[in-house]
Write a structure and sequence with these properties.
Distance between the termini: 40 Å
Number of strands: 10
Order of helices and strands: EEEEEEEEEE
Number of helices: 0
Mean pLDDT: 97
Helix content: under 10%
Largest sheet: 6 strands, mixed
Radius of gyration: 13 Å
Strand content: over 45%
Low-confidence stretches: none
Structural class: mainly beta
Shape: globular
Length: about 120
């Protein structure tokens, strides 16, 4: 059974940093494009970032470009999201997802359970 498990969330002050991890099991991680999706309370899902199977081509939403860095380690079957200069509007639950494209959000069945990020002073 395919599983995605996020970790690394927490509460930080504006301007702070966090590093999210997404560990995978039960499927061939290297064959999937991977994505980060976030959802704030009362809002719909928002695509944040995605990366191709090799890790050579990252994609970012305009709202996070220049502040977030996506990466993956296929040998460790893990994806990462380095988040710097965090803003209150980044507060959301962050999900990793596997897909067939780095920019198209797949259905919920291909998401993990998420990790909460709260940016507040």
């Amino acid at each position: 059974e395919a599983q995605l498990v996020e970790s690394g969330g927490g509460m930080v002050q504006p301007g702070g940093s966090l590093r999210l991890s997404c560990s995978s099991s039960g499927f061939d991680f290297s064959r999937y494009d991977m994505l980060w999706v976030r959802q704030a309370p009362g809002k719909g899902p928002e695509w944040v970032s995605g990366i191709d199977t090799t890790g050579g081509i990252p994609f970012y939403a305009e709202s996070v470009k220049g502040r977030f860095t996506i990466s993956r380690d296929n040998a460790k079957k893990t994806m990462y999201l380095e988040m710097n200069n965090l803003k209150p509007e980044d507060t959301a639950r962050y999900y990793c997802a596997r897909g067939t494209s780095p920019t198209n959000v797949p259905t919920r069945g291909d998401w993990g359970q998420g990790t909460q990020v709260t940016v507040s002073s």
